[in-house]
Structures are given as structure tokens and as C-alpha cells.
Amino acid sequence: LPQQLATLAAAAWEEARQSRQQLQAQQQEVAQLQEQLSRARQDGERWASALQRAQREALEREATRGAEQARQQELIRDMKGRLLELLREKDALWQKTEGIDTPTPSPSPRDAGLCARCRKDFRRLSRRYDCRLCQGKVCHACSVDAGKQGRCCLLCYQQRHPQAM
User: Fold this and answer.
1) Which residues have C-beta within 8 Å of that of residue 24, sequence separation ≥ 6?
2) What is the block-wise mean pLDDT of the chain (165 residues), using blocks of 10 residues?
3) Partners of 152 in the β-ladder
4) Computed over its alpha carbons, how large is the radius of gyration of the chain?
């Protein structure tokens, strides 16, 4: 009986020693897992912070872009308004000047070397034309080819053909 008790005690001691070893191994594993969990939480917090910062920056960029787009749209509206004003102004000026007839140029002997319309000096490279209607001397830019009638000044052409201009 004492020998059985000794074997049982030795087996119990061995079992206790193995349980202590398993417990220590499990405690070490728990410590490692807790350390990994702590690092994962820190990483998660860093990622969450980075995500919040990125979202904040994206919202700021979007707000800036929206403000810039609004300014550009306002500028476009202003430019369209100004364009309409200029077109109205041009039409008003055109209507004011439409009925004005400039007198037919009469070339004077001393101005024989100048265009009757633009007063450009006739040189070797600028050709002189005689208007077939008023007999004035005009340059190429101030004359129109009137077909069978020959060249005539713009003023005479406009008077003869008001629908053409």
C-alpha cells in the first residue's frame, strides 16, 4: 500500500508538473496574443486617424473646388453679360451710323498721290484704281470689283448695292 501511494503520489506530481508547464506555455501564448492585440489596436488607431485626416483633406479639397467652380461660373456669367452689352452697343452704333452718308470724295490735284478714302500714299507697291462711278482714286483695300462695271470705291458700291453689305 505504501508503495502504491508512492506511485500515485509520483504520478500526481508528474501530472502537476506537466499541468504547470502547460499553464506556463498557455500564459506565454496569452501574453503574446495580448501583445499582438495591443499592436493591432495601435495600428487600427493609426489607420483610423489617417483615414479621418484623408477624409478631412478630401472634404476641404472638394469645398475649395466647389468654391473655384462657383467663381468660374460667376465669371462666365459676367463675361456673357458683358458680351451681350457689347453686342447691344455695337448694334446701337451700327444703327446710328447706318444712315450717315459720307460725301463723295473729290480728288484735289495736290492729293493725286493719296487714296480718296483712307488717304494712303500710292507708292510702287500700292496700286491706284479709278472709281468707275465717282472717278476718285482709291487703293486696292478701298475698292471693290463690281464685275462688268469695273472697280469702284466702297462708298459708291454700297450706295448702288445696299443689300450686299
Assistant:
1) none
2) 88 95 96 97 97 97 96 96 92 78 52 76 76 84 78 82 64
3) 144
4) 51
pTM comes to 0.37
CA dihedral (13, 17, 19, 23) positive or negative: positive
> What are the residue ranges spanned by the domains of the chain?
1-86, 115-164
Using alpha carbons only, what angle is made at residue 123 by residues 121 and 125, rounded to the nearest 5 degrees? 125
Element (H, E) at 118: none
Alpha-carbon gap, residue 154 to 165, rounded angstroms:
10
Confidence at residue 84, expressed as pLDDT on a 0 to 100 scale: 92
Residue 117's closest CA among 150, 149, 155? 155
Q: How many CB atoms lie within 10 A of CB 151?
A: 17
Interacting residues of 151 by C-beta distance below 8 A, sequence separation 6+: 129, 130, 131, 132, 138, 143, 144, 145
